[in-house]
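Problem: given the chain below (422 residues), write out its structure.
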Amino acid sequence: MEKRRLASIIALFIAIFIVANGCNKTVPPAIESTEPISSDTYTTDSVTGTSPNIVTETAPESSPSVVSEDTAQSSASVSSADITQPPPSDTIPEITQSSPPETSADTTESSPVTTTPTPTTAPPETSNNPQSVTIVDSSIPTGSGPASTPRPATINMPKASGTSTSTTDKSVIDYSHTSDGYIMVKYTGSRQRIILQIVTPSGTTYKYHLPTDGSNNSFPLSAGNGSYTVQLFEGNAGTTVVSPVDNIVVTASISNTNTPFLMPNFYVNYTANSTVVTKASELSAGSSNELDRISAVYNWFVDNVVYDDHRAENVRSGYVPDLAELMRDKKGICFDYSSGMTAMLRSQGIPTKLEEGYAGDIYHAWITTFSSETGQVNSWIIFDGSRWTLMEPTFAAVNGDTNTGFRAFVNNRSNYTTLFQY
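Solution.
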């Protein structure tokens, strides 16, 4: 009997212990991750230089139909929509900093005696298109200050010599200097919409909106030797219809293919008295070689010219850089940066091309420069003495020249597709 009571008591204590411990048992809370989740930031690849989210860009219209020689000399009209060339209305990407890329000779392109092939006759190179970007390092190198004695400028002004011309009652096309790689065009009629169209030997069509003040303007034959079709059209302001004024074919045999890129032209417009030329002389003072001058000019643009977002958002077809305004206001879009730096370097005797096309998927403008010297600009832009070297004053000003994401993008030459050279 006593044994049974003891067993019952022990069983009761065991039951109470189990129930008590079961009620007091706690369940651990769910663990929340402390790592941020981000799908918006993309770090630039330090090898390919691909980059992210680019603000809305206006793509260029398709290449226009070329009016035939017979049509241009008739009284028929054509739609000016067929010959509209948009400016590089770029919105600049801000590029994410990443590990430093290896310095590569891919920043350079073809030999100076060979013009860049145009995508009109061949498909463009595959681009590593930028898709999203964030500035991490916005530091900008200090520009070189002027020395006491400015370096003299070298100005080769284009001339309308009158030796070889095509003249109508409204225009003069002077092709006396095709051996130097340019023609001069003047319109003296009364219409307000004047369009010049130059078709290169490879079939690329260059389009310009001419002024109506009767001035002579210079246009490069930038595709090298061969036959160029030169067509001039006129129309009324606010209309889309233009009529032919003149149509000729000129043949160029250029003695030195660098010459067109050492002179002023319609988009790189300066004289010996221009502020942009004076500044280049000041920046080049005391320089011992071409690379010193290139570095001084590049740094000045990166350090002193501000990107004009408002202008970029409102730029229209037919936009022409005003270098006097650029030097006064020290702001502009990619076309202004590139035109200004081109003018400065040409005035110092350094062959430079203003180029238009695609940087990734942005319609954009940049420059390529040739020097027979070998060395580096700012430790990473390589000149090997035999090829044209790409330079990006606009992206450098926005992102900072020391930004490694920016450097990686520019170092990968396949990110750039050249459509036009001036």
